């Protein structure tokens, strides 16, 4: 069977989250890191996700990388393309969700697509076009303090219109609850009225599955990982998919570490939990800025410990804001990412082979530095967070790339228990 589903993800943890959704649906999925240099894929691959690090780069660069990824996927012959962004719609007023969606629509000769970041299993729901994170509207959730993409509006209609060329219209929950045909009719109505993006309400997985059915035949789909849940069934029904596959845990031998650069409320809770259990080391941004070799310091410390360790740069919103005032928003983020990436390489050099990395940008920096070019997706630790197998710096590695906001407080030890650490 040929590769039938393709996706372009705007960050690395988001890509793994999507891969995990398709792996759970029995697909054989490969995650390519960055623009692929080769089309050499395992012969039974059903779906490929190209993981870009394009969420916070300038919009024109995000557009050109996404178009190159689209061309690569089209050359594989995929039937449907998903543009995967964050379930909390992480973006700035300039993009990059809007500009990339517009560019993909144009390149594919289309005039309409769906915009659906909903992810009910992780508490991201959409009602009357407003995105909620747990019980709070997006703009009142901890996402308002995100270091790179603070979200200060909850209306997906306004958010999308502010950064794109077209109008966004709602498919209300009453319509979604009537099932796939009604949703499709809702999209058709919007398109006829000149809307370019359809935003369907969704509060439960059942809504996402109905939406998935409605998206049968829509060549470009955009959203979070949950919008992808229902797509494999359409292809299975049409006979385009073989028997379901079962994911395997990665085999990697070596010490275990958690590296955290995410400053989300969830990650900070996970750090607080694990700091009681394991040796932990905090990377200080002021030391990095002062030119201290923090990587060597952290690695010397790591070698003196036994068992799993935690190394983190994450701070609370006040300290992040202070760091950004001092060094600039993007510069502060990049300094921390570079330090954590250098530490990751040093750890692998010293025999660490099982790494949990918290944060999408952080994961991007770490796996690029490790020279990983693809991930084999294994079983999930928690919704959207799978273990992955990879080759990095010539070694077999087990990597768990955790989206900032995902997972319960005990997610780090649970991840390692799955590998019997
Ligand atoms: N103490 C700090 N001060 C300022 N910035 C920091 C600090 N610690 C980490 N950062 C930066 O904050 C950013 C966090 O983004 P990252 O994508 O890694 O996490 P996230 O947004 O929570 O995760 P996700 O994208 O998966 O939702 C990174 O650029 C990181 O380097
Ligand atoms: O959709 C999500 O929340 C995640 O997959 C993600 O993209 C975090 O960076």
From TrEMBL:
It catalyses: 3-dehydro-D-erythronate + ATP = 3-dehydro-4-O-phospho-D-erythronate + ADP + H(+); 3-dehydro-L-erythronate + ATP = 3-dehydro-4-O-phospho-L-erythronate + ADP + H(+). It comes from the Bacteria. One of its GO terms (molecular function) is kinase activity. Pfam families: NBD_C (PF17042), SBD_N (PF07005). Keywords: ATP-binding, Carbohydrate metabolism, Kinase, Nucleotide-binding, Transferase. It is an enzyme of class 2 (transferase). Residues 257-412 form the Four-carbon acid sugar kinase nucleotide binding domain. Its EC number is 2.7.1.217. Residues 5-231 form the Four-carbon acid sugar kinase N-terminal domain. Catalyzes the ATP-dependent phosphorylation of 3-oxo-tetronate to 3-oxo-tetronate 4-phosphate. Belongs to the four-carbon acid sugar kinase family. This is 3-oxo-tetronate kinase. It comes from Paracoccus litorisediminis.
């Amino acid at each position: 069977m040929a590769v039938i589903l393709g996706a372009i993800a705007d960050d690395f943890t988001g890509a793994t989250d999507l891969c995990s959704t398709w792996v759970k649906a029995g697909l054989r999925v490969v995650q390519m890191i960055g623009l692929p240099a080769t089309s050499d894929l395992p012969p039974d691959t059903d779906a490929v996700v190209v993981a870009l690090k394009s969420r916070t780069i300038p919009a024109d660069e995000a557009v050109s990388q996404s178009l190159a990824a689209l061309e690569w996927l089209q050359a594989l012959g995929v039937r449907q393309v998903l543009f995967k962004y964050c379930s909390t719609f992480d973006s700035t007023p300039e993009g990059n969700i809007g500009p990339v969606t517009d560019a993909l629509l144009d390149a594919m000769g289309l005039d309409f697509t769906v915009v659906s970041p909903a992810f009910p299993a992780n508490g991201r729901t959409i009602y009357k076009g407003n995105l909620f994170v747990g019980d709070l509207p997006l703009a009142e959730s901890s996402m308002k303090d995100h270091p790179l993409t603070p979200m200060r509006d909850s209306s997906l209609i306004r958010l999308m219109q502010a950064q794109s060329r077209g109008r966004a219209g709602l498919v209300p929950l009453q319509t979604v609850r009537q099932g796939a045909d009604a949703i499709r009719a809702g999209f058709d109505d919007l398109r006829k009225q000149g809307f370019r993006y359809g935003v369907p309400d969704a509060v439960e997985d059942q809504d996402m599955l109905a939406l998935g059915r409605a998206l049968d035949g829509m060549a470009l789909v955009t959203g979070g990982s949950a919008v992808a849940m229902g797509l494999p069934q359409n292809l299975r029904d049409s006979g385009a998919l073989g028997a379901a596959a079962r994911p395997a845990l990665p085999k990697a031998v070596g010490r275990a570490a958690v590296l955290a650069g995410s400053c989300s409320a969830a990650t900070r809770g996970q750090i607080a939990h694990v700091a009681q259990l394991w040796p932990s080391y905090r990377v200080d941004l002021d030391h990095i800025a002062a030119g201290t070799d923090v990587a060597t310091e952290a690695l010397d410390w790591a070698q003196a410990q036994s068992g799993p360790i935690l190394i983190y740069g994450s701070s609370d919103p006040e300290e992040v804001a202070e760091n950004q005032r001092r060094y600039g928003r993007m510069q502060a983020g990049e300094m921390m990412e570079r330090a954590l990436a250098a530490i990751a390489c040093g750890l692998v050099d010293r025999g660490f082979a099982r790494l949990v990395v918290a944060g999408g940008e952080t994961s991007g920096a770490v796996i690029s530095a490790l020279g990983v070019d693809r991930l084999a997706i294994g079983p999930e630790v928690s919704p959207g967070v799978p273990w992955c197998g990879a080759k990095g710096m010539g070694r077999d590695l087990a990597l768990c790339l955790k989206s900032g906001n995902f997972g319960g407080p005990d997610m780090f030890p649970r991840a390692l228990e799955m590998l019997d650490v």
